[in-house]
Amino acid sequence: MDNEKEKAIGVFDSGVGGLTVFRELMKQMPRERLIFFGDTARVPYGSKSKETVTRYSEQIIRFLRTQNVKAIVAACNTASALALDDIEKNADFPIIGVVKPGAYAASQATKNGKIGLIGTEATISSGMYERLLKDINPDARIIGKACPLFVPLVEEGLLDDPVTTEIAGRYLAGLIDSGIDTLIMGCTHYPLIKDTLQKTVGDAVKLINPAYETARECSLMLEEKGLLNDKDIELGETAYRFFVSDEAEKFKSIANMILPLGILGAKKIAIEDY
Amino acid sequence: MDNEKEKAIGVFDSGVGGLTVFRELMKQMPRERLIFFGDTARVPYGSKSKETVTRYSEQIIRFLRTQNVKAIVAACNTASALALDDIEKNADFPIIGVVKPGAYAASQATKNGKIGLIGTEATISSGMYERLLKDINPDARIIGKACPLFVPLVEEGLLDDPVTTEIAGRYLAGLIDSGIDTLIMGCTHYPLIKDTLQKTVGDAVKLINPAYETARECSLMLEEKGLLNDKDIELGETAYRFFVSDEAEKFKSIANMILPLGILGAKKIAIEDY
Asked: Could you give the CA distance from residue B19 to residue A271 in angstroms, rounded to a whole number?
């Protein structure tokens, strides 16, 4: 494939949750080829340090570059929050994380300047959303809350369940009391429990889905650079390819819960060698 | 330290849960020096493949051997179930997992031969407990149930909480209906919710704690080999040392929930280099 436009977009995540971003890219850019890498051997990143998450992310980007991609989307909030600043410094190609588009959309949406943020321990304590938001809207205030049980609850399939509702009530009580009018779903799994979250915070609070915003940002960026693919994918072509670092069966079951594809499997690669 | 008896016992786990085994070793063998390694950069193992878990375990054993240990305890059920068979084949020193002692104790405890087993996906689907039990007691039958939410619930501190009770009720309903009279807590975190589990299954069901059984087995094995330390640890000596693969703050908070020590911290090492 000589034409730069026809190259794929690389998408990576600590595991499978990033497929919610992949799904948005598919929806918003149906002509784009996509390559997904899920670091299922080292998932999750959310409880790990900046140094470790940066090292892991760098290995993945080296791998994706061997796949001849035209741009990379870090579909993982933790990687975006902890590692992307360092990685962007050295990058000679477009790379987009989910944090900036999420922070930007939240700053546009809020009326009272009180923005709630839910995510992993690492994402919340990184302070990354706060720093970005201060640049965009100095008056806005982020109130963060780590919600470590949401990912395992989603992975158990308890998307619409009294237990998830109960836990959501406990996690979000403080945010509701703070009077937020906007809530960033700062972890790729959370859009899967969007309905439960919306019911818990009430209809007056606007939910921000960084997956959606990131796909939009990616599309705009590729258009600006003249890199959007303008030819349809041919019938029968494998436009979407999946790689993982472990052969976990889990990939398939959760992938098929998120994507409307019927994924047959993913290829395992030795990510530590990159 | 020239005396073989005075060398430490190495203990490892995928994360911090294995400290429940460490705690039993401390209690049952107060004269032993102990070195703990928690693979906090790659935790959890429970959803990962045999190949990956074996590679990780081999790296850890190579690290622990550099610490001049006299024996190694694999305090992780997943590592014990998936990797220990392969590792024992090549080992020239004593190595003990938690699965064998747990299976043995369960086979002694059961009267009706129906044994429940709860653990991670990987431990349950490995079939390791079944295979071991078949050798000890061909009439016994294992009924397994993966309980992936228990570890995150414990790590959120919901040890005695209606949500944990509700989830335990769902996970264990099938086992109770099967008429088990014995239940193996096949994951290091589970002894921390022992009371909730006991209430759920009722007093007629005997709970087996592989951590306790493993410490007992380790003590007997060292005694047989003449390797039990017979001198008291000197006052002021650091008898217990802790290593991790990531500097996750989480280690400290959960470690101090499990151990009666007031752990100040752990040393981070680059486990991938071993």
From this structure: 29
Known catalytic residue at B218: no
Just give the CATH number of A4-97+212-273.
Answer: 3.40.50.1860
For chains A and B, CB pairs below 8 A equal 60
ipTM of the complex: 0.87
SS3 state of residue A124:
helix
What is the C-alpha to C-alpha distance for residues A233 and B13, in angstroms, rounded to an integer? Answer: 47
Whether the CA torsion A49, A126, A124, A244 is positive or negative: it is: negative
Q: Which residues of A touch B166 (CB under 8 A)?
A: 162-163
> Could you say which of B41, B148, B245 has the minimum Cβ distance to residue A156?
B148
Nearest-by-CA chain B residue for A14: B42
pLDDT of B201-250, one tens digit each?
A: 999 999 999 999 999 999 999 999 999 999 998 888 889 999 999 976 66
Q: Where are the domains of chain B?
A: 4-97+212-273, 99-209
The yes-or-no answer to whether B4-97+212-273 and B99-209 have a common fold is yes
CATH assignment of A99-210? 3.40.50.1860
pLDDT tens digits for A33-45? Answer: 999 999 999 988 9
Record: fold of B99-209: Rossmann fold (3.40.50)
Give this prediction's pTM: 0.90
- The whole-angstrom separation of Cα B80 and Cα B53 is 10
